[in-house]
Amino acid sequence: MLKKYWLLILILSLLLLLIPACGDDDEEEITAGTPTPTVMPKLEPIKIGILEDFSGPGAAAGWLADGCIGLMKWQLEKEGGLLVSGIRRPVEFIKYDMKGETAVASSGARKLILDKVSAIVYGGWLPPHGLAVADVSDPAKVAYFDCFSTEENYKPYKWVMNIGVPESASYMARTEKVVMEVVKPKTVAYFGSAMDRDRTLMIKKGLEALGVDTVYAQDHAVGVVDFLPYLTKIKYTNPDCLILNSDQTSCATMYKQIMELGGWGNIKVVGVTEAAAYDAAVRQRGAVGIYVPIMYLPGMTDTPAVKAFEEAWVQKAKEDPGWAKTYSSGSTLPTPNHAIMYEGIQAALETIKQAGTDDPGAIAEMGRSGKVEFDSPIGHIHFQPDGSAGITGYYVQVQEEGKMVPVTSAP
Fold it and tell me: Which segments of 168-301 are extended strands (E)?
């Protein structure tokens, strides 16, 4: 009897085990668990070092840089990042304030390299600043896109690319063109920053070889705020033409202070660098009539690169009125100097794209490979193996309220 009892218990247990397997065919199949969704790894940002004077005597350059950084960030966000080897990567701009000091330029370059940036852009507004950066970046094999140095500064290095100024030959050609064909002086005075003396002397030597007499030549120290003693001497000397080679802030101050002396009189003023065309400078009453070099004139050309730059600027200004008020000078278009600063960032990003990596060494090699070329707001850029980009520029004459009229073509 006991055996029969245990046999019955065994049979019932087996039946209980079989019941869950005998469900309706239409029932949803029960799985072992819910599949875990694939999580894409977070992409590390590509770091771009921005080394510029955000304070000090060259702070105007920092103001220009900040406006262009804001525009480029906005564009990259719209595009989903920088396309590198088929993948959209976020970009981080790491700023370092040089404060107008050469020693700080060196320490800033070291700091950015320790921060593992893929490239460094700008490096201040005077050639000695750029040299200080290159002395650090070159041994580390980090690409340095230098805005304000001549080829005498960057050609001795292996990994520096010139993005903001023409070759010395182009400087000479475009300055001589406006002086000899437009101004046509018999006597010339020279005045400029002591830290950019070499460029002034180069132009002086060239004009003297063409038979133009020098009646005055003087440098000023960086950071000078009272130019009246110099301007008084220049007016007393009364040359036919003044060759002016100074920074943005100094030009703006001189254009303002000259009005305390009654204006320039019969003196024709020719600026040497694009600093003379700085927006806050050319809006001064004392800027009317002067000749300044530019590489981009807002609203005057319709190349695809210029149109894209201007359209992006206008759209950004509409979406971000605060940015427009701070960096767009109340205008719907960028200023001539904005285009130069924008092209500096664009050059670094284009080189990274073509290198296909964020590795600083590979980017440096690509920059000097002779393969990097692209269209920019200031013209077609093609980096040569010596670091030059083949840019030139042309001269305009400043009219009322900062308006500009071209007076020469590119040499």
Answer: 187-193, 213-220, 241-245, 268-271, 291-294
Counting every residue written for the chain, the total comes to 411
Q: Are residues 52 and 156 in the same domain?
A: yes
The total number of structural domains in the chain stands at 2
243 phi and psi angles, rounded to 5 deg: -90, 115
Please name the residues in contact with 196: beta carbons below 8 A apart, sequence gap of 6 or more.
126, 127, 245, 246, 273
Report the chain's mean pLDDT, rounded to a whole number. Answer: 87
CB 199 within 8 A of CB 191: no
**Average pLDDT, stretch 246-273?**
94
Residue of 142, 132, 207 lying closest to 359 (CA atoms)? 142
> What is the C-alpha separation between 253 and 11, in angstroms, rounded?
105
Output the furthest CA–CA distance in the chain (Å, rounded). 137
pTM: 0.80
More confident residue, 331 or 162: 162
Residues 273 and 322 in one domain: no
Enclosing domain of residue 284:
168-294+396-406
